[in-house]
Amino acid sequence: MFAKIGESIVAKLNSDSAYSALVDEDNIGPVIVPQKSTYPYVTYEIVNVSNFLVKDVSLKTCEVEMDITCFCNTYNETYNISKAIVGALDKFEGQQTEDGINFSAKFSFDNLRDGYFPDPEKFYKTIQFNILINKI
């Protein structure tokens, strides 16, 4: 189901007019920024998965912590793109099927932090979302 969450993020952001006005459709992917990419570029990665168990039996629910990071040439770009990402994904709920399992995923904005990489001289903001996953 985690691959489908990534696909949902890409589809939701690319269909959002505020986000797509700022970031090229192909400039989003998992974990790393490929060499020779243009900026801005957005990555997403799973930070943690917590499965809810009762007496060693899965409740068919888990929580995923997901970081979405935008890398940009200027600090203002990171602000505008982060604002668009939160606007598109906070409270977003989608349904997916993977390996014959139906599930829903509900996104909730948690926190934001920023920074700067001296080499390659890029600003970034990392937005953390909590995603509640329920098997249907």
Care to give the gist of this entry?
This protein is α+β, with helices and mostly antiparallel strands and about 140 residues long. It has helices at about 1-15, 15-20, 75-90, and strands spanning about 30, 40-55, 55-70, 95-100, 100-115, 120-135. A hairpin with a 2-residue loop joins strand 2 (about 40-55) and strand 3.
Description:
This protein is of the alpha+beta class. The chain has three helices and six strands. It has helices at 2-15, 17-20, 75-89, and strands at 28-30, 41-54, 57-72, 93-98, 101-117, 122-135. It has a six-stranded mixed β-sheet. It is elongated, with a radius of gyration of 16 Å.
Shape verdict: elongated
* Strand/helix succession: HHEEEHEEE
Strand content: over 45%
Give me the side-by-side strand order of the main sheet: 1-2-3-6-5-4
Number of helices: 3
The description of the largest β-sheet is: 6 strands, mixed
What is the residue-mean pLDDT, rounded to a whole number? 91
**Alpha-beta content class:** alpha+beta
Low-confidence stretches: none
Radius of gyration: 16 Å
CA-to-CA gap between the ends? Answer: 12 Å
Helix content: 10-25%
Write the layout of secondary structure elements.
Layout: H1 2-15, H2 17-20, E1 28-30, E2 41-54, E3 57-72, H3 75-89, E4 93-98, E5 101-117, E6 122-135
Parallel strand pairs: 1-2
Antiparallel strand pairs: 2-3, 3-6, 4-5, 5-6
